[in-house]
Amino acid sequence: MTTPDERTRAILHTKEFLVELSSAERTPGVPEVVRNEARRLLRHYPGPRELDLAHRALPIFFGEVPGTMTATPIPS
Q1: Cα angle at 61 between 56 and 66, to 5 degrees?
Q2: Cα separation of 11 and 45, whole Å?
């Protein structure tokens, strides 16, 4: 079973992977069609801010984002 922290880390690591794929300098030899798809997916991919908000709204589904201090719950 996936824990909220594992789910959040997977999302963050997937974003890092897409950023790597989109860079010719970091990943030479990757076809341009793959780079373009990585860039397209990154356009709307959630970042730490969105994941922190998701964690505060749904802590049973998303874990705390590493490097953030979630102190204020979302008002009801």
Answers
A1: 60
A2: 9
On the 0-12 / 13-18 / 19+ scale of CB atoms within 10 A, 39 is: middle
What stretches of 1-76 show up as alpha helix (H) in DSSP? 4-22, 32-42, 48-57
- Write the pLDDT tens digit of every residue in 51-61: 999 999 999 99
- Cβ contacts of residue 70 below 8 Å, gap of 6+? 52, 55, 56, 64
**62: DSSP letter:** S
DSSP state of 46: -
Q: Per the confidence metrics, is the pTM higher than 0.70?
A: yes
11, two tokens: 């999302």
In 3D space, the residue among 36, 42, 7, 6 whose CA is nearest the CA of residue 24 turns out to be: 36
